[in-house]
Automatic annotation (TrEMBL):
It is a peripheral membrane protein. GO terms for molecular function: ATP binding; ATP hydrolysis activity. The keyword Ribonucleoprotein does not apply. Keywords: ATP-binding, Cell membrane, Membrane, Nucleotide-binding, Transport. It comes from the Bacteria. InterPro entries: AAA+_ATPase, ABC_Ni/Peptide_Import, ABC_transporter-like_ATP-bd, ABC_transporter-like_CS, Oligopep_ABC_C, P-loop_NTPase. It holds the Pfam family oligo_HPY. It comes from Tistlia consotensis USBA 355. This is Peptide/nickel transport system ATP-binding protein. Coiled coil: none annotated.
């Protein structure tokens, strides 16, 4: 299956008073129609900046310093702002973490959705209302026609996020980038939205990048997982294999820190230390100061090791799941 999105060697930098901060460092991946991939890692790992970079939403002092982002064969890196605006929403869309920041409190939901439609299409008032009603119904909002006249504050947090998803789906874009869209919601609402997103990807062939720090959420949604640390992808592969048999010590640490992986009454196994500043990364592997497996070899940055349909960036990869549990 051909890729709708191909990312090769993407680098995003920010100019700071202390020097150049490389938030995204030479990452590559591809995405096929209807596929959902999970991009996971701690806060500050570069996940959200990756998402913004894909849509060309990096403003000074930031810049895309290199690489390629091809959407249905069209190169997005280097496009003019006007060309990018014409593609955003129609071909590639983003769902942000906070729907309150996304939605205008002074406009009704119907007005905002109609404006999103009018940005790319000429439609009559009736046709716009019908499209918006259909989109709201698709994401599970009851009485969708009546809710078009409601303001954002009249919706619950989960319903506001559904509205944001409906807006992203209005033009049925080829790719949706979802930046931790369920983080602020309770577990039951998270599960509902995850199920709806999975259904929408299957029904309409929309490809999705689901950005999250929560492996539990990603495990129920994504078919493939990319683990990110200090601006780089350190492990990639089918979700079931990465979660069952992780290779990179950082992925092992993320999985070990999940409450479900720890017996009741036993303290969570946390990754020691904190992610280093992207302005002062250690030489070699950025994870080595926190890694129990680190050796002098790790003073040199490891290249990606590729094994069939998965890869990892480590000199001392973990073994099979049974060996890791036994240890």
């Amino acid at each position: 299956m051909s890729a709708v999105l191909e990312v090769r060697g993407l680098r995003t930098e920010f100019l700071t008073a202390a020097g150049i901060l490389r938030a995204v460092d030479d990452i590559s991946f591809s995405l096929s129609a209807g596929e959902i991939i999970g991009l996971v890692g701690e806060s500050g790992s570069g996940k959200s900046v990756t998402g913004f970079s894909l849509l060309g939403l990096i403003d000074p002092p930031g810049r895309i310093a290199g690489g390629s982002v091809r959407l249905n064969g069209a190169e997005l890196v280097g496009m003019t702002p006007g060309e990018l605006r014409r593609r955003r929403g129609r071909e590639i869309a983003m769902i942000f973490q906070d729907p309150i920041a996304t939605l205008n409190p002074l406009l009704t939901v119907g007005q905002q959705m109609a404006m999103a439609l009018a940005a790319h299409e000429r439609v009559s008032t009736k046709a716009a209302a019908d499209r918006c009603t259909e989109a709201l119904a698709r994401v599970g909002i009851p009485s969708p026609r009546a809710r078009l006249s409601a303001y954002p504050h009249e919706f619950s947090g989960g319903m506001r996020q559904r509205v944001a998803i409906a807006i992203a789906l209005l033009h049925r874009p080829a790719v949706i980038v979802a930046d931790e869209p369920t983080t602020a919601l309770d577990v039951s609402i998270q599960a509902q939205i995850v199920a709806e997103m999975r259904s929408l990807a299957r029904e309409f062939g929309v490809a999705m990048i689901w950005i999250s720090h929560d492996l539990a959420v990603v495990s129920g949604l994504a078919s493939r997982i990319l683990v990110m640390y200090a601006g780089r992808i350190v492990e990639e592969g089918p979700a079931a294999r990465v979660l069952r048999d992780p290779r990179h010590p950082y992925t092992c640490g993320l999985l070990d820190s999940l409450p479900a992986a720890t017996a009741p009454g036993v303290p969570l196994r946390q990754i020691p230390g904190a992610m280093p500043s992207l302005l002062a990364l250690p030489p070699g592997c950025a994870f080595q100061p926190r890694c129990a497996c680190a050796t002098p070899d790790c003073a040199v940055a490891p290249e990606m090791t590729v094994e069939r349909d998965r890869s990892w960036r480590c000199f001392h990869p973990a073994g099979v799941a049974s060996e890791r549990v036994a240890s």
